[in-house]
Amino acid sequence: MSLLVEVFVREPDGKRRILDVPEGVYQSGGFESWRTTVWGSEFVRSLGARFLPVLAADDLYVEAEDVPEFQREVALLRSRLDEVAEGTQRPRTLEEHRDQIETRLRIIEESIGKALEIGGGVLIW
């Protein structure tokens, strides 16, 4: 299984409505194991991440007002991509692991962009 990255909006009654994803759009936020081995890892936590480490214990719901801060966190991880790849568990080569993380960060960034555009939130589950 893999983690899914989705964009949601709040309905007038407060319920979350997950937006439809266009067919063919890849929305993986990483493998299920990445909840603890990458996003929730001690290394990612040591960088000051506070959103993605939530995945170690639960699904991540980033409300609209927190999306800009989440965007900064993802930008921090991207800026330290080589270190994140080296500092987290990997079943593949370092280069493959780095490429996988980069791809997942790009997917998360695209969802953040959409959320900012429409005033929505980001869900990773």
Structure summary:
The chain has about 120 residues and is α+β, with helices and mostly antiparallel strands. It is built from five helices and five strands, in the order E-E-E-H-H-E-H-H-H-E. Strands 1, 2, 3, 4 and 5 form a five-stranded antiparallel beta sheet that branches.
Overall average pLDDT: 96
| Poorly predicted residue ranges | none
Radius of gyration: 14 Å
Largest sheet: 5 strands, antiparallel
Count of helical stretches = 5
In percent, how helical is the residue content?
40-55%
Q: In terms of structural class, how would the helical and strand content be classed?
A: alpha+beta
* Approximate shape: globular
The span between the termini is 11 Å
Order of helices and strands: EEEHHEHHHE
Give the total of beta strands.
Answer: 5
Beta percentage is 15-25%
Which features characterize this protein?
alpha+beta; 5-stranded antiparallel beta sheet; single chain
Verbal overview:
This protein is of the alpha+beta class and 125 residues long. The chain has helices at 34-37, 42-46, 67-79, 81-87, 94-118; strands at 2-10, 16-18, 28-31, 60-62, 121-124. Strands 1, 2, 3, 4 and 5 form a 5-stranded antiparallel beta sheet that branches. A hairpin with a 5-residue loop joins strand 1 (2-10) and strand 2.
Helix and strand topology:
Elements: E1 2-10, E2 16-18, E3 28-31, H1 34-37, H2 42-46, E4 60-62, H3 67-79, H4 81-87, H5 94-118, E5 121-124
Antiparallel strand pairs: 1-2, 1-3, 1-5, 4-5
Helix pairs in contact: 3-5, 4-5
